[in-house]
Amino acid sequence: MSNEAARRGLMLVLSSPSGAGKSTLARMLIASEPGMELSISATTRPPRPGEIDGREYHFLSREQFEQQADRGDFLEWARVFDNYYGTPKAAVDAALAAGRDVLFDVDWQGARALRAAAPDDVVGVFILPPSIEELERRLRARAQDDATVIARRMARAADEIAHWAEYDYVLINRDIDHTFREIVAIIGAERLKRIRQTWLGDFAASLKLPI
Ligand code: 5GP
Question: What whole-number distance in Å separates Cα of residue 182 and Cα of residue 189?
Fold first, then answer.
């Protein structure tokens, strides 16, 4: 007799250099895992065309952000370039307590901060490209051959890759469907961990032999 509602959710933190397939994998996970939701960060940067408040980000003024940060409303927050970004705490707490999992698409700094804030809840997965040539090829395809942009992205990618060993799982994305299946297997095993099956104590107690 498993009690799904009593399970504690997990925080799946997915990082990779850009071009390794992270966004595609995140989209596939949200589409196929009904128990998983994407964490929506708050930011002070203005919305880009097509971005909707509450979907890509919660767009806040600097005053609103600072107020919420002072109140301790963020699980973690950081300044990136001239803007602030933060993970709202209440939504994550509510999801985990209700047995839902939360997916975070963040870089190594965000991952490190989340792990520090919630060490028992975070499952870190790092996605590596199959080779540096393949990563460069993918970044070139995106940057439409602007050499400076490509060089900057390659430097950022190298910085991100340097942090691979801070993650619980490291996957080499040679084939997107294969990597996706590996992540689903990780989620399956992590959901079964004793600390997440909060109903087990009562269940085990009910298994006493009749005297
Ligand atoms: P963008 O403005 O392009 O959407 O994101 C810029 C950077 O902010 C990215 O590197 C992204 O990982 C980071 N970022 C987005 N949300 C958060 C967050 O909640 N916390 C932290 N620490 N970084 C974030």
Answer: 11
> Has domain 3-199 been given CATH number 3.40.50.300?
yes
- Residues 6+ positions from 118 with CB-CB distance below 8 Å: 11, 75, 92
Residues with CB under 6 A from ligand 1: 41, 45, 76, 78, 80, 85-87, 106-107, 109-110, 113
| pLDDT tens-place values along the chain, 211 residues long | 455 457 999 999 999 998 899 999 999 999 999 999 999 999 999 999 999 999 999 999 999 999 999 999 999 999 988 999 999 999 999 999 999 999 999 999 999 999 999 999 999 999 999 999 999 998 888 766 688 888 888 999 999 999 999 999 999 999 999 999 999 999 999 999 999 999 999 999 999 887 7
On whether the pTM is more than 0.85, the answer is: yes
Q: Residue 111 Cα, ligand 1 centroid: separation in angstroms? A: 11
